[in-house]
Amino acid sequence: MAKYSNPFRALRNKNYLLFWSTQSISLIGTWIDTTLRGWVGVNVLPENKAAGFIGLIAFLKGFPTVFLSPVSGVLIDWFGPREVLFLTQVADTINACVMAFLVYKNILTPAQLLILSVLMGISGAFYLPSRNTFISSVVPKDYLPNALALHALIFNLARMIGPSIAGFVVKYYGLSFGFILNAISFVPLLIVLPTIPTNYQRNLSKERAFFKDLSEGLKIVVKDKRILSTFISLTVYAVFGMPYSMLMQAFAKSAMRTGLVGYGLVMGSMGLGAFVGAILAGGMDSKKVIQINEEFLILAIGTSTFVTSVYPNAAIFTSFVNGLCQTVFFNVTNSRTQLLSPMHAKGRVMSLYALINNGGSPVGTFVFGLLGNVIGIRASYQILALALIAYFVIHKFLIKQPETESTY
């Protein structure tokens, strides 16, 4: 058991260490970019139109995932996750360079910003499944949950560091320099990525058929009861769990009666919880990870969300619980999906995982955001919480759970 206690053990793999370290740099640049694009979006239109415009940008960045994630899975299985991942990073580098140029010349228009957001959404639809599949093709299966947890760790660190750097850059060097920094942050990864060997078994058949291969991925998910159960849990959490953080700005303003500082403290607490969750998930044995009952994590999130709705000022504490449980939840469901998926179709299965993960959250946020306008944001949070708790009851006591057997 001792060899599984080190939460950084995946870094013993030199190839993963190369990817992890260069990806860390890239993620910081990405969060600098995300922060600055939001700032540009707020200022490119009059104040009375800015909020709707920001919502439109978020939608345009998210909707390509719904259509293109299944496509990405087929291409990953045809050409390999490393090759697809490399192209997504090239596309994002070019996007950042274009943003830097348009901002520097002061010629950026709302239409151009929307187009660049769509292009980011397209590359993002290919990024998540190719990245996850690439990681599983680099590290041994016993290291996979730890490697995914370490990626969550650097993601949350970048989420805390990136916006701070962005503020410093804007103050002393200007907006355009921030986008240049993001473009530069991709360079180490683009240099290292092609040199990392993988063990991915690509589909080299001369009789490739796109729709046939796509349907095969769907059949694998439907026939494997454990993967199907995992996807149902993921869907429930994406629709009813993710809106907690997505709607927190509105909750902080109307329910907590606080401003940007209070909102920042709540999200900082959630980020700290996610950081702790990544450390905890990283110390788990791979066999134990795929056997964890994720419905208990959903119950904890539902309970903390309900407490938040009743006692709004408790959000500073409950957000820590949500962040911790969310990170462990994604580590469990991601690891199980990859470890149970057949190697030849892993890209297609993971693309469906990405589809649910990235597609469910905007739907839930949109629906319960509108509902919050009608019945109040606290009542909307209560419905979210009760839905999660109800799923726990149904999943735990009314549905017989399939056994977990790895076919990795």
From TrEMBL:
Residue ranges that the Swiss-Prot or TrEMBL entry lists as coiled coil: none
Protein's UniProt keywords contain Lyase: no
Protein keywords: Cell membrane, Membrane, Transmembrane, Transmembrane helix, Transport
PROSITE patterns named in the record: MFS (PS50850)
Molecular functions (GO terms): transmembrane transporter activity
Localization (cell): Cell membrane
InterPro entries in alphabetical order: MFS_dom (IPR020846), MFS_trans_sf (IPR036259), TM_effector (IPR010290)
Domain called Major facilitator superfamily (MFS) profile: residue spans: 1-403
SUPFAM superfamilies: MFS general substrate transporter
Transmembrane segments: 16-32, 52-72, 110-128, 148-169, 175-196, 227-248, 260-281, 352-375, 381-399
GO cellular component: plasma membrane
Topology within the bilayer: Multi-pass membrane protein
The protein's name in its UniProt record: Major facilitator superfamily MFS_1
UniProt organism field: Pseudothermotoga thermarum DSM 5069
Lineage: Bacteria, Thermotogati, Thermotogota, Thermotogae, Thermotogales
